[in-house]
Amino acid sequence: MFDQIIEKNLDSRKFLVLNDLLLETNSTNFQIDSFIISESTNFPCEVKNFEGDYYFESDQFFAINETEIQNPLDQIKRSDTLLRQMFQKKKYSTSLKSNVFFVNPAFTLYQAPMHKPIIYPTQLTKYFEELNAMPSVLNENHYKLADYLVKEHKITSPYTRLPLIHMSN
After folding, report:
1. SS3 of the chain: helix, strand, coil, percent, to 5
2. pLDDT tens digits along 5-19
């Protein structure tokens, strides 16, 4: 769904988009749903397709039934740290601006924090309009960054769980 939103709303002449990256640095794996490269800032995107009612309290996310869910803001903090470490090893300096995107129109977050890097379904169009309004001219270094990330992408996830099969004669 998010890929379609990007394709429809983001000016492909001004941005490069990489999807579903599985990366590793310092023996730690991390995943980035979408990575948008622009002239001056790169935008790691954590995409959530939650449906239903949730609430935010004490820096935590909860389903309306009071089940705590993993905080996507913690996820982007972790991936930002690991991305920066990865880029430092390559002596690559970049500005990152991560956001959590909730894409399902049937999602509601009660007590939503106002000053967190969260984009709600009703804000997606405006977000991409503002991104497109930014000056962005891509050069060879942007394409090199994209190539580097694609080369670093892990094809197989260490988290893949295969069933144990016992064979008998």
Report:
1. 30, 30, 40
2. 999 999 989 999 999
Q: Is 145 exposed, middle or buried (0-12, 13-18, 19+ CB in 10 A)?
A: buried
Tell me the sheet residues that pair with 28: 25
Domains and CATH numbers, the chain: 2-152 (3.40.1350)
Which pLDDT score, from 0 to 100, does residue 155 have?
A: 81
CA 168 remoteness from chain centre = 45
Dist. CA 89–CA 20, nearest whole Å: 22
Q: What is the DSSP letter of 164?
A: P
For residue 122 the two structure tokens come to 């009703």
CA 6 to chain centre: 13
Q: Which two tokens stand for residue 96?
A: 């990152």
In DSSP terms, 88 is beta-bridged to none
Cα distance between residue 24 and residue 79, in whole Å:
10
**119 CB contacts (<8 Å, ≥6 apart)?**
99, 100, 101, 102, 127
Q: What type of residue is 147?
A: D
Check pLDDT > 60 for residue 160.
no
